[in-house]
Design a protein that fits this description.
Structural class of chain A: alpha/beta
Helix content of chain A: 25-40%
Radius of gyration of chain B: 33 Å
Number of domains of chain B: 2
Low-confidence stretches of chain B: 167-172
Low-confidence stretches of chain A: none
Shape of chain B: elongated
Protein name (chain A): ABC-type uncharacterized transport system, ATPase component
Pfam family, one (chain A): ABC_tran
Strand content of chain A: 25-35%
GO molecular function (chain A): ATP binding; ATP hydrolysis activity
Shape of chain A: globular
Oligomer: heterodimer
CATH class of the largest domain in chain A: Alpha Beta
CATH architecture of the largest domain in chain A: 3-Layer(aba) Sandwich
Keywords (chain A): ATP-binding, Nucleotide-binding, Transport
Number of strands of chain B: 3
Helix content of chain B: 55-70%
Largest sheet of chain A: 6 strands, mixed
Number of helices of chain B: 17
Chain lengths: 298, 412
């Protein structure tokens, strides 16, 4: 378990983190979201002791020291490989720095390359790989030593949806093995799919912290996806309707002014009739993100 | 310890296969070989033309068999024994078997030696012939003057020229002084070039790591101090490898050419140079380069962009050039106060102290103090930079070099 208490960091006169508190549980995936400059990387750098900070960061009840490095798998935001090495050399070198022996790692390499569907052999030079494949190698280097604390800074960067799914599969596998996983992403769809818990930073402050679904639900199920033969104008005449958006023919997204209005609208529009869609949902993480970041949501 | 070893071995393995190392280690050897081959060939050709190893290229004929036989007996390698009359000699010259022949004539009063040939006479053979006919002429003069044995002996007395030189060498010049001068030149130039190469290798390797952000992954695996010490140790091992390659190559070349007249002739001189270079001056070279390498690592850590990696070592190279030029400029004044002070100052002492040691104008205690200062500096700077290395590598300030340096040390 990773416990962050009153984390505070000031760079010269700029407050990067202010009283940040959250817990990342073992066997859970915690998403750290926020705009650029919100303090996500600073939080990661604090956890990894790259910078000095005020507050407490405890891993399984103690400060992170050199002895814990072998249990950490860290993926930085930017490309971080030695491009003149081969895939095998790169993976072995970084695994040896995690106290793994060549004999332990070498037999696993082919399996990991297959799991991530890397285009290239283990003898291929890193520089000969595409950006996406380099990202996969970085991810393998982060995960192959089976770390207990996994920190992923923008892990989906450079991955297409198919490859993103491969990564999600591995992240879920690590979660099932009991690892504590914390990652940042700007892709709210991925965050929503993966995270058990969510921490949102805004200008160094925690503005959201909790179970992902509970956070979404806390914003109320004010989004209504319906299928009806009514026109958009007819829908706008109904009570409790803030806005109506046509998605495609006879399908609308309605923004309600309160959650309980859904039942009333259901009775008026559907009643005992058949409908192929009537779904009342909370806002997506993307919408919550924009809302919290101060942007207008239609 | 295990991680330190991983860092050392990985850095060493990646650098030893680099083009820069291979060129810097083997190009001087190839160039030395290219220079040595013609010298060796010239030396062999010179020895062959002096008639030491090959068949004689001159013949001797005479109207008096005794005179000819006495010469051949005294200088058996000078003349072709098989040719003993003018006809044979002319044919041999015509056929190119010999370069020429000497015809010795005695008319009872005068000895005449005439050389006939297509090419100049070998100077050694010519001297032998002149000495020989001089002796025979003296004897003939004494006989013609009816001198008795005692008088003839008195007439043969020659003046004596003696030479006494202070050098232990039996050559006619100050071999020791020349050996010192050559040793100092080799020591300073070798140090300068190795230092420039390794400063660049180190700064560039570290700048590339910084640029690629691999350093963040590494710092999540091991401490910055351990990583820094590992890097520097690997580079030091690389330097020792290169010096080792030079020493082993030198020994092999020396042994292979042990029979070469040029080496035999200069054996004592070569030994003097080798003795001057090995030992304490070599230690200074290694320690000096390590100190500069450490500073190059700092320069590499301060680059802003990966594309600036090749310029990273510039500040250290500049300091090295200044030290190199100063040591050259003041080489003629090794006893000056400035020279003495510089031989204790780290970054300069590696250039200045070896000169004083080779010249023999410094005591062992002074050398020890200078080495201790250098070693303490290396250890202190390594410790200080090792502690700040994380900050130096992780800071990404875009200001001037000095501000980046300050920010790196302040990085928290």
């Amino acid at each position: 378990m990773l416990e962050i208490k009153n984390l505070h960091k000031v760079f010269e006169n700029v407050t990067a983190l202010s009283n940040v508190n959250f817990i990342a549980q073992a066997g859970h995936i915690t998403g750290l979201i926020g705009q650029n400059g919100a303090g996500k990387s600073t939080t990661f750098h604090s956890i990894l002791n790259f910078i000095n900070y005020d507050g407490d960061i405890k891993w399984n009840g103690h400060q992170i020291t050199e002895n814990d490095f072998n249990d950490i798998g860290y993926l930085p935001e930017e490309r971080s490989l030695m491009i003149n090495l081969t895939i095998e050399q790169q993976i072995i070198y970084l695994a040896r720095l995690k106290n793994k022996t060549v004999a332990e790692i070498k037999p696993k390499i082919d399996d990991w390359l297959n799991r991530f569907e890397v285009k290239g052999t283990k003898k291929s030079k890193i520089k000969s790989l595409s950006k996406g494949n380099q990202q996969k190698i970085q991810l393998i280097c982060t995960l192959i030593h089976e770390p207990k604390l996994i920190i992923l800074d923008e892990p989906f960067s450079g991955l297409d949806p198919v490859n993103a799914d491969l990564l999600k599969r591995e992240i879920f596998l690590a979660k099932d093995n009991g690892a504590t996983i914390i990652f940042s992403s700007h892709n709210m769809q991925n965050v929503q799919e993966l995270c058990d818990r969510l921490v949102m930073l805004n200008n160094g402050n925690v503005v959201l912290n909790g179970d992902t679904q509970e956070i979404r639900d806390s914003f109320g199920k004010t989004k209504l996806y319906i299928s009806t033969d009514k026109t958009r104008e007819e829908l706008l005449w109904l009570d409790h309707i803030k806005s109506v958006q046509t998605r495609f023919k006879n399908h609308y997204l309605i923004q309600l002014d309160n959650e309980s209005a859904g039942k009333e609208i259901f009775e008026k529009l559907v009643g005992n009739q058949y409908t192929d869609q009537f779904s009342q949902e909370p806002p997506t993480l993307d919408e919550i993100f924009k809302m919290k970041a101060g942007e207008h949501i239609e | 310890m295990n991680k330190l070893w991983v860092i050392i071995s990985e850095t060493y393995k990646s650098q030893i296969k680099s083009i820069t190392f291979l060129l810097s280690a083997f190009l001087p050897l190839v160039l030395a070989l290219l220079v040595m081959i013609p010298i060796t060939m010239m030396s062999n050709s010179s020895s062959s033309s002096s008639g030491e190893d090959n068949e004689p290229s001159t013949a001797l004929i005479s109207n008096q068999t005794q005179i000819r036989n006495n010469f051949v007996k005294e200088y058996p390698k000078d003349m072709d024994h098989k040719i003993n009359n003018e006809k044979q000699a002319k044919n041999a010259v015509k056929n190119g078997d010999i370069d020429g022949y000497v015809s010795l004539n005695n008319n009872g009063k005068q000895i005449t030696a005439t050389y006939h040939g297509n090419d100049d006479m070998d100077s050694d053979v010519k001297n032998h012939v002149i000495n020989y006919i001089h002796t025979v002429q003296n004897k003939l003069n004494a006989d013609n003057a009816s001198l008795n044995v005692k008088q003839a002996k008195i007439m043969n007395n020659q003046p004596i020229f003696k030479s006494t030189v202070s050098s232990k060498s039996n050559h006619g010049y100050d071999e020791n002084k020349d050996a010192k001068h050559l040793s100092i030149t080799i020591c300073i130039f070798a140090m300068y070039f190795i230092l420039i190469i390794y400063s660049s290798i180190t700064a560039q390797a570290i700048a590339n790591e910084k640029g690629s952000k691999i350093i963040e992954v590494i710092f999540s695996s091991t401490t910055a101090m351990k990583y820094f010490i590992g890097k520097i140790t690997a580079i030091a091992a690389l330097i020792l490898t290169q010096i080792g390659i030079y020493i082993i190559s030198g020994i092999v070349v020396y042994e292979l050419n042990a029979g070469n007249p040029l080496i035999k002739e200069n054996q004592h001189f070569i030994n003097l140079v080798i003795n001057n270079l090995l030992g304490i001056p070599l230690l200074y070279t290694i320690l000096g380069i390590i100190l500069y390498v450490i500073l190059s690592a700092v320069c590499g850590a301060l680059v802003v962009k990966a594309s600036d990696a090749n310029k990273a070592a510039q500040p250290v190279v500049l300091v090295s050039i200044v030290a190199f030029l100063l040591s050259n400029a003041f080489q003629q004044f090794p006893n000056s106060l400035f020279y003495k002070i510089c031989s204790y100052v780290p970054l300069l002492s590696n250039y200045f102290m070896p000169t004083r040691i080779i010249n023999g104008n410094v005591g062992i205690s002074e050398v020890c103090i200078s080495i201790i200062i250098l070693v303490v500096t290396i250890v202190s700077i390594s410790w200080f930079i090792g502690r700040s290395y994380k900050g130096l590598m992780l800071q990404n300030s875009n200001n001037s070099f000095l501000i980046r340096l300050r920010d790196g040390f302040r990085y928290r």
